[in-house]
Amino acid sequence: MHKHDLCCVGHITLDKVVTPKKTVHMPGGTAFYFSHAIRHFDDIDYSLVTSLAESEMSVVDDLRSKNVDVHVIPSQHSVYFENIYEENQNNRTQRVLAKADPFSVDGFENLDAKIFLLGALLADDFSLELVEYLSRKGLIAVDSQGYLREVREQNVYPIDWKDKLETLKYVHILKVNDLEMEVLTGMKDIKQASQQLYDWGVKEVLVTLGSLGSVIYDGKEFYKIPAYKPAEVVDATGCGDTYVTGYLYKRAKGASIEEAGKFAAAMATIKIENSGPFNGTKEDVENRIRTAEQIIPVV
């Protein structure tokens, strides 16, 4: 069976993005932002597994036209998110207007990858059974945000991760922001929280701090990853997904944790300067690392 370097599993959403400057309707979700970002790097074997309604198949057709390998699991509905940002782009209000079917083990028998990114948008997207199954095929990477969202009457509420102790022992790479970190561990201190997540089984803990940078912990060292100051903040939607894209891309290529973190941060900076997915090149990212003003996180 062919083994991909990277495989992202996640729903493509319908997104309504409201910022102080404008309102935009566009596809979204980890699957969308990750796929559109990584397609700019032609030295990685990548595949996407997504699930969406037939009415949104044009998004998949567009990805395929850009040479992205896409496997589709049909769903009665697509996920429909509304994201409302304040002037400070770190502050966001969300509503979920429709949900897609969760993923299950069925359909993954003929898919193999070195790293699987589980791009959860809502808490019930991935069963524990599926996480355990995929962990026998490759390393599991997870962005925690979806596991910490509960939808009640279309509104999104923060919750703790159900079955987190059972699930995290299968997770090699976990990305959290500072608020998600506190929900998961009950701790505000980045070092203590990272050590707790490591003790629960995570091998690489990525804590993003927005415009203040990020911290990565591997059980031995805390890597302080700078934020690269953008020329202009236009749209933060998808920045976390873009960060994960850069990190997994570089780790899959054999880069060190620190090198991968810096590449991820610079990618996110380039993305935040525009609406829509990352649309730069590897050279753009490397140039940003060399030239942009840096903000070092305080830990």
Automatic annotation (TrEMBL):
List keywords of the entry alphabetically. Answer: Kinase, Transferase
The cross-references to InterPro entries, in alphabetical order and at most eight, read: PfkB_dom, Ribokinase-like
Q: Name one GO molecular function term.
A: kinase activity
- Please give the name of this protein: Carbohydrate kinase PfkB domain-containing protein
Q: Which residues cross the membrane?
A: none
Species of origin: Dysgonomonas gadei ATCC BAA-286
Residue limits of the Carbohydrate kinase PfkB domain?
152-279
Where, if anywhere, are coiled coils annotated?
A: none
